[in-house]
Amino acid sequence: MGIVTDKIMTPELIREAERLAMNVAGIPESVLIETAAGALAACVETMQPNGRIAVLAGSGNNGADAIAAARFLANNGFSVDVYETEVRRRSDGYLGQLEKLVASGLPIARKALTKDIPFGDYDIAIDGLFGIGLNRAITGEIAEIIDALNAVRESFGRPRIVSADVPSGIDALGGSILGTAVKADVTVTFSAKKTGLVLYPGREYAGKTIIADAGIPMEPVAAKGYNRLCEVPKLPKRSPAGHKGTFGRILILAGSETGPGAALLATCACYRSGAGLVKLVIPAVVLPEVLHTVPEAVFCDRGRFLADPKAEMKGISVALIGPGLGTDEEAQKLLEEALEAGREEGTVFVLDADALNILARKLTKEGATERFRELAEILPAHCILTPHMAELSRLLGIPVAEIAEKRLEIATDLCGATDLVPVIKDACTLVAGDGEVWLNETGNDGMGTAGSGDVLAGIAAALSMESVRGTMRLAECAAAAVAVHGTAGDLAALEIGRRSLTAGDLVRYLPKAFGAPEALGESSTL
């Protein structure tokens, strides 16, 4: 009996689960293929109650899934044509399903897979060309066939494309395009989401992803998978007797004379995320300008902070440093003094933007993991870091392109290297900490706008209070902040559109992201 796991799996883990299913649980390969094919066929039937189906079958077990689905669909009255690759070597699973198809006597046309297929004559095309084992670029006639299918779908709106497990041509591990790739409307992925369906550009090519039970017991490998962030997690209940001290005294050291906006966005987001009191440290010259924007904040100018950092950090549970701070000598001094005072106070830190750029200049070691360990030696014990790709490049001393290519490997290496919690910001943000990695599926391209990261930093600072209270681990706080941030962006995009979304909109939609207005509790009737 299989299960669908909510973990995100690498191809290697899926293959391990398949081996255990067959060799330990004793489930025949043919049963696994037909279970997967049944889910694939059921999806097609939901999309298209009747119509013409083109099945593109590769020579491996993904082709076997497609062949079996063709038989199920034809048996239910669909008009099905199967297009097969002309190769000598085919998997045993494929040959077994082909034998069943022939023996069924169903009116299924078998044709050669060529670039001349009249794709526009079909309502749905099932892509069963390649699966999770593809590790080379697609070239030649198969590439031409995929390009032709995509072009017809783009031009005429048909056939709708359903990919089996992963769109053919997408690297199931990293989400990259291997030469060319099918651009699916729906991907029916078996047993678990694959990492390449969550990371871009694979996520875009997958279209809507449906996770289907393929009869593979996933329990033996589930713990090794990555965590999904697809909604706001349930947060600890707030105390009805709480006060501003209960909900966190948070210091934000951010903003500059020329850019106070980052500090304001972070402060507003922090309050909207449940902070009890926020002390904003900002240059004296901009205090009048920002006072009316966040009247709830307590203000402290930089000079006063530097005069007695320990006094200003007294009672501070969480400190956010970096948004719009600058990297000059004064900014560096502010960061150093805050870290030192916070270390004595036991403060949790969220370090963003310019704070990370300042820290990167202090690192001297070679190698990404070694530099990260060096950074951990500089910083207090409990820190969330929120770098985008360029900032992480400076911290780790490796090119952005290398980070993009190896982001899963890097996140996995970093998640247990130190007590630091990196939040690697990208179209699919990764959170690493406490030996775990989270992959974010919330959010949208409208959030690619100035100030979006400042809002995330403010949310993270507020939610980090849960780690101070001991109700959540710091890594869980960071992951929750990412999910809240992305959900606010998705809610905003629904109402105002992605193109017009601004960072200020993210702050305004935070109450909805948290589920506000909250239930008032059970009412009593007299």
Helix and strand layout, with pairings?
Elements: E1 8-9, H1 11-23, H2 29-47, E2 52-57, H3 61-75, E3 79-84, H4 92-104, E4 109-112, E5 124-128, H5 140-156, E6 160-164, E7 186-190, E8 193-194, H6 195-198, H7 202-206, E9 208-212, H8 219-222, E10 227-229, E11 249-253, H9 261-272, E12 277-282, H10 287-291, E13 298-301, H11 302-307, H12 309-313, E14 318-321, H13 329-345, E15 348-352, H14 354-360, H15 368-378, E16 383-386, H16 389-396, H17 400-405, H18 407-415, E17 421-424, E18 430-433, E19 436-440, H19 452-463, H20 465-469, H21 474-496, H22 503-508, H23 510-513
Parallel strand pairs: 1-8, 2-3, 2-5, 3-4, 5-6, 6-7, 7-9, 10-19, 11-12, 11-14, 12-13, 14-15, 15-16, 16-17
Antiparallel strand pairs: 17-18, 18-19
Helix pairs in contact: 2-3, 3-4, 9-19, 14-16, 19-21
Explain what the structure shows.
With 526 residues, the chain is α/β, with parallel strands linked by helices. The chain folds into 2 domains: 8-226, YjeF N-terminal domain (Rossmann fold), CATH 3.40.50.10260; 249-512, Ribokinase (UDP-N-acetylmuramoyl-L-alanine:D-glutamate ligase, 3-Layer(aba) Sandwich), CATH 3.40.1190.20. Helices cover 43% and strands 16% of the residues. It is built from 23 helices and 19 strands. The strands form 3 sheets. A 10-stranded mixed beta sheet has the order 10-19-18-17-16-15-14-11-12-13, with helices on both faces. It has a 7-stranded parallel beta sheet with strand order 4-3-2-5-6-7-9, with helices on one face. Helix 2 packs across helix 3 (61-75), helix 9 packs across helix 19 and helix 14 runs parallel beside helix 16 (389-396). It is elongated, with a radius of gyration of 27 Å. It starts with 7 loop residues before the first strand and ends in a 13-residue tail after the last helix. 52% of the residues are buried.
